[in-house]
Design brief:
About 30% of the residues lie in helices and about 15% in strands. It is globular and about 80 Å long. The chain is α/β, with parallel strands linked by helices.
């Protein structure tokens, strides 16, 4: 009997030792294993849209939870438009370096057609490619908007993503169920608003040629008819090959068009279901870490929400959509936990620019109130609450100051806040530091956020932060507590090439609402510092702009499923596993 007891005791002790060794080995492997990484990229979301930045009207509990468990950045800057910001996040580089910037003739800040030869160049090293080098599985769910190209040569799979479900362009009015069609007066006038200077020059040239004696009256008539015909042809060109055409609202799975046009209301549900399936897969197959980028089309106009979230926000459709996006983020975080993928997890969250205004200066159109968000309020150095000025497309704070969060339990102190100037470009060098991946063959404009982990009072690494819109000169410059604005924001939108003879200068600590420009004669030293910095910055740019020809729409490059109908009907979605 005693020998039997000793035998079983020895067996149990041996099993205990084996289990302890195995557990220790697994723990060591987890400690050495690089983190899983999730990047939540919101669209057109202002500071004032989120509870953690002061929104008391609409609840965003899941985003607020990320802020509570991680680090919040109070002065994080983006570009005022989608495409340049998205390139900057993935490369850590300013728009003049990536080439994703407004043209001189084709003056679109963003890609408005999939039938162009422009896109993020293949010699750029993207965040996804850095992860892929390190053995990660990489996935993008959502909006891309950095180029399509003939044969899809600029789509995400050519920039380091293993898998993608999403839209190549932005969400737009034409993608909504309320779109009145292509043949409207607003669409007919669209080329006039987009290319006012070119068309006006062409129109004024006709009477000038007559006055100078180069043409007779019949020549005036012929040229006028030619200009009218040109305008009509250009209008037809635009409504067929740009986002004015609902068939440009395409949903891809990798290289395959799965919806054309896509069903708007369920876009966020599609991305969330894809994420849930993916995280279940990663929970079973743990051989490699992963990078998941959730790139939402919300809160871009036209605002949409699925049936489950309509009339739930209490303040119209915008609040419904905001609640749905927040729910999706919460669902992804819950699935990470359920599949035991959150023990070593780095989460980042930001927006590509500020919210849309309820008034669009470039089309002179009034947008419904429930289509525009909130730039928010911040405290100045006197402790006063000040509303941020401006909106998407401008270089006022409301257009370029965006939410920024990072969460990494055990690495980043929970509930911490950083007031120093930071940029959405900073996520890229942060990833480089985490991955221990030096980059020496190109200029990285972003600065790692990791120094703030040890001390939130660390001074900004951006002594000068250049805010680009037009190809000729920075639209604004942030320097210490100062900000200089070089474009005349009152004439048009922020990217208009209407440069001021003298910039507006603001003290951002006292006047974050940019309401009282400082007298330049009393701040000449600051102004000289900024101008000198701009001079040296532009000398060292090595600009890499997408050419005007690459922005032209080429009909045979237009993505079309089932030619000539260009139609792929969405299958009824099964979202039961989402618990709605």
């Amino acid at each position: 009997m005693a020998s039997t007891v000793r035998y079983y005791t020895a067996v149990c002790f041996t099993m205990y030792l084996v289990a302890t060794v195995l557990a220790s080995k697994v723990e060591n492997q987890n400690a050495e294993r690089p983190p899983n990484v999730v990047l939540f990229l919101l669209d057109d979301t202002g500071l004032g849209d989120l509870g953690c930045y002061g929104n008391k009207s609409v609840k965003t509990p899941n985003i607020d939870k990320l802020a509570k468990e991680g680090m919040k950045f109070n002065r994080m800057y983006a570009n005022p438009y989608c495409s340049p910001s998205r390139a900057a996040i993935l490369t850590g580089r300013l728009p003049p370096r990536t080439g994703i910037l407004k043209g001189r003739l084709m003056q679109w800040q963003v890609f408005v057609s999939s039938a162009t030869n422009g896109g993020l160049q293949h010699d750029e090293l993207t965040m996804a490619e850095v992860f892929k080098e390190k053995g990660y599985d990489t996935r993008l769910l959502g909006k891309w908007h950095i180029g399509n190209g003939p044969g899809g040569k600029y789509l995400p799979m050519r920039h380091g993503f293993d898998y993608w479900v999403g839209t190549p362009l932005t969400h737009a009015y034409s993608c909504s169920n309320t779109y009145k069609g292509q043949w409207t007066l607003q669409n007919f006038l669209y080329p006039l608003f987009e290319h006012t200077s070119i068309l006006m020059t062409m129109a004024l040239l006709i009477p000038v040629l007559k006055l100078l004696g180069f043409i007779e009256l019949n020549g005036v008539v012929m040229l006028t008819k030619g200009l009218v015909v040109f305008y009509i042809l250009y209008f037809l060109y635009m409504i067929h090959f740009s986002l004015l055409n609902p068939k440009s609202c395409i949903l891809y799975r990798n290289d395959e068009i799965i919806q054309q046009p896509y069903y708007t209301d369920n876009l966020t549900l599609e991305y969330t279901r894809e994420a849930v399936d993916y995280l279940e897969e990663r929970g079973k197959e743990r051989s490699k870490p992963f990078f998941l980028m959730m790139s939402y089309n919300q809160m871009h106009t036209t605002i949409f929400a699925s049936q489950s979230f309509k009339d739930t926000g209490g303040l119209g459709l915008y609040s419904d959509a905001l609640r749905e996006m927040d729910w999706s983020i919460g669902k992804v975080m819950a699935e990470l936990k359920r599949n035991k993928l959150d023990s070593n997890l780095l989460v980042m969250l930001t927006s590509d620019n500020g919210p849309l205004s309820t008034y669009e200066p470039h089309t002179m159109a009034h947008v419904p109130v429930d289509q525009g968000g909130s730039a928010g309020e911040v405290k100045n150095s006197r402790g006063e609450r000040v509303r941020l000025k401006g909106f998407k497309s401008t270089n006022w704070e409301g257009g370029i100051r965006v939410p920024g969060l990072i969460r990494w339990p055990g690495k980043i102190p929970a509930g911490s806040e950083v007031d120093a100037v930071t940029s959405i470009m900073d996520f890229y060098p942060t990833v480089l530091d985490v991955m221990n991946r030096p980059v020496a063959d190109r200029i990285i404009d972003g600065q790692s956020l990791l120094p703030f982990v040890s001390d939130v009072k660390t001074p900004t690494q951006h002594l000068f932060l250049f805010h680009w819109c037009d190809p000729d000169h920075p639209a604004a410059v942030t320097y210490k507590n100062y900000k200089a604005i070089f474009v005349d924001e009152t004439i048009h939108v922020g990217c208009n090439r209407n440069f001021r003879s003298e910039p507006l200068l603001f003290d951002m600590s006292l006047d974050p609402g940019e309401s009282s420009p400082l007298p330049l004669d009393k701040h000449q030293e600051v102004l000289d510092e900024i101008r000198t910095a701009v001079h040296f910055h532009m000398q060292g740019l090595n600009q890499n702009y997408i050419t005007e020809m690459e922005k032209m729409f080429v009909p045979w490059w237009y993505p079309c499923h089932n030619f000539p109908f260009c139609s792929a009907k969405p299958n009824p979605g099964n979202y039961a596993k989402l618990g709605l």
